[in-house]
User: What shape does this take?
Amino acid sequence: MDETKIPTRDDIPEADKWDLSQLFTSADKWSEDFAWIQSTYPRLTNWKGRVGESAATLAELLEFDKTLDLKIERVYHYASLELAEDSSNPDYLARMGELQNLLTKIGETASFITPEIQAIEDGKFAQYLDDPALKEWRISLHKIRRMKPHVLSEKEERLLALGSAALDGYDDAFSQLTDVDMKFGVLIDDKGEERPLSQSSLSSFLVKRDHELRKRAFHQFYAEFQDHQFTLAAALSYSVKADVFRARARNYLSALEASLFKDDIPSAVYDGLIAAVTQNLAPLFRYYDLRRRVLGLSELHHYDTYVPLVAEIETNVSFDEAITDVLDSLTPLGKEYVETLGAGLRGRWCDRYESKGKRSGAFSSGSYGAPPYILMNYKRDVFSDIFTLAHEAGHSMHTWFAQRAQRYQDADYPIFLAEVASTFNEELLTHYLLERTTDPKMRAYIINRQIDDIRGTLFRQTMFAEFEKIIHAIEESGAALTLDVFKSEYRRLLEAYFGPGVVLDPELDLEGLRIPHFYHAFYVYKYATGVSAAIALAERVLTGVPGAVEAYLDFLKSGGSKFPLETLQTAGVDMRTSAPVESTLRLFDRRVTELEGLL
Assistant: This one.
């Protein structure tokens, strides 16, 4: 394969792609289910005005809606994974467009269900919950009923459903612009070879030893974003406006409260995270100064913060070797966990490598009863990609266990818990790699990796979370969100979180426009809380606390059957306090001290 250009989908061997035939054997089969949904969903109206007439009637509706949802979920899963393969493919775009239009119609038709459930008189509703016909729906009904203050009338719900696709248009515009339209050119790498620069390959350049190569990659990459900065600012502005509109329409005090309410997360958890991190930035600044000294630089730039500090160690790990390392590191979790994951990764759960038009980054995506697929853009010379594989495998196994232990309506776990399962795997991988090496240089390399992981997951994501809170507060105050506002607010946070020892190039102000998670607000804080909970749970497993493994597996199996803080407390960690975050900050401080000694 010609490595001087990004390969097309046809260039990638079949064995390195995910096998979507376990969802649908062909596009025609997908179309059959799509047609079934089209012809079946209007039957929902049979229950309109009758939802609360009896427990049996409510149970009939819920079971019919479940049958419909299972089909919709699988159809959407297939279409979204195809589009992730190649977001420029007209057939994939057409399928997703058709599906989004259909989902809008279904949302409009089904808009009566929740308001009618909310309208059931309290005493009657309590009787319904005791009826055997609704035994399997008690958890989900409790969650629906809890949303009563924020559910609108049938007509209002219908309008929100009709407008959902239009309100989310900024996300499609951002994805098409950054994944398809934007072109970053090529660079001559450290071996004198021409290589394409892309959102996915940028990380490969930023870990190279050549300072000038890192610098060129950074400036060339951001030059393209600078050319589109006003468009990106408009997209992000409308993303925030949509969040604020939905929150106000549903009677929340703020967009942040609206985001936290569903998971029953107090705002004190969000604010406490930011407070704990911003009060403990000194070890981070000390690490940046260590990085500058070890790299022999007169000044440290952002593009110098990813290259491994141990220059003598070059990594070249194949995907199959990465699988072996990940599986070996997870042996404390038992035979079922490791064998199931191994079969999936060595089978075709995973779409392994970058290709033209493919979505950047990585994710895990599952639908009930189907494989929990993983998208990667694996680079054998990017050591962090092994950790990315472990991370996404954590998500996939969380899905696998939850679906086997819970009914469909209770299996879907919230993002707050998802980031615990994924980061937990990274912690076990770090421990495994440190345990099996006596080479001081390799140990320094792995500790450096863990430091950078905590830096990226706790410090960086907390900075992102603070940025999201700030820009939503600006919109809620009635002030305008312009390009200059985005850049100035982001610059202020960069200065606070990077400190006086890092030179912040002007182009870095644009980073706030290119982070995909900002277009799905109030998500990133869960990475920071997740790493803190994961480190606490991993320590329990690795130190042999009695029952810790069983408690962790029960955590995976719980799915969405309880609210996240309760689920974590049962597993052994209390996120209502700052203790897990502060413990992770202390670990970071210890690791920086250890790295200073090793280097």
Q: What stands out?
A: The first strand starts at residue 186 and ends at 188. The chain is about 65% helix and 5% strand. The radius of gyration is 24 Å. The first helix runs from residue 27 to 40.
